[in-house]
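1st attempt posting a full record on here, be nice pls
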Amino acid sequence: MLNPVTAKAVIDHALFLGADFAELFVEHHQTGTVQLVSGEVDKVNSGIDFGIGIRLFFGHKVLYGYTNSAEEQELKRITTLLAAKDKRDQIATAGALNLNRYQDQHPCVQALSQHTHLDAKIAFLRQADAAARQEDEKISQFMGTILQREQRIEIFNSEGLHIGDTRHYTRFAGNAVAQDGNEQATGAESPGALTGWELHDKLDAKALGHEIARQALVKLNADTCPSGEMPVVIGNGFGGVIFHEACGHLLETTSVAKKASVFHDKMDQMIANPVVNAVDDGTMTNEWGSINIDDEGMETQHTQLIKDGKLTSFMVDKMGSLKTGYARTGSGRRESYKFAPTSRMRNTYIEPGNSSLDEMVAGIERGVYAKKMGGGSVSPGTGEFNFAVREAYLIENGKITKPLKTATLISTGPKVLKEISMVGTDLDLAAGMCGSVSGAVPTTVGQPALKVDNILVGGGN
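the predicted structure (as tokens):
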């Protein structure tokens, strides 16, 4: 996408201005979205974006700018502006650019750039809509969206790196509203993968519609959730959002390097119950949060964050490595050419344990089963969080009983890690988007069902 001769000239110019390191991130991004509301096509959008990001290091200082032009003079102009306040005599020399090649771990058959498959996507959405409405006449609304995008990137840097990648993302998102008089409740599902439209072969539109409607219906006229500290069993899959938000971000060098994380000095120490093992893995084939290379050009890897309760690794980008001394983990990510990369999660999950859901529930006299988690808020420095439970049930005398309207889980990441006493065998993963200083990136959360011995539950109507 960018002439290597141009890239080398811009990098040489940056080093002439005194930069320790220079990088060009080139991106061509194509998107296609179709949305169905109450059985009718509501939106069909498509777009293409192109741009180049320029990143310079002066010691531990990062300078970043971007442009939509691939012209050498424009790229040099932006580089000169970036370095204006830090300009000094040249101290580094650029290596010769060598094109790196690797094996693509994430095959794509039906790419967006080859065919939009618009009719097939609309038919899929209509099937999900019909299935949801067939569940019960109380389903008053259904909205479904299919997003497909194709991101081509190319990276050049002053260490001689020249590498590229093409990423294909496809995701379905659906939600339904159930209504009974003045009572309303919602249900939602949003599976996705690092693949093309062939994802629809692995998804059952009718099953998705039924599940979305079931979630909404089960909450209608449900009981109020009790409040107070109690044991909670958190369901598998998207339940992993708590670990992602309340703990995962604290293990990124984005916060560790600034000592803004409570875990910054806890390497090789016990930070969780010994039953907890956690991973951030970018290598999982076609998984939503996977990548062949990160946005700094490093091949991705499997990173063991916690082993038997002990902190064993952080997620480390290039600047994070320079600041902390920890080896890079292929975790430098960014939303687009408009953002400088920072350390970010990929597929982050708690590994399976040895307990069954029945065993976890059997030991609870009174508590909550948080079958499906929703959104929440987290304090980045401490890991203090509150998360809504999208589907909850009361646990009484060792059995799951009646559904509950709403519940909120309140704690801190460091505390909840030590309160986990049992981890299930039923690992499941769920797609999501994670926002941070380098924008929103596709990430996967996950876990088996797990038992938290004591956590504050907020109830209410």
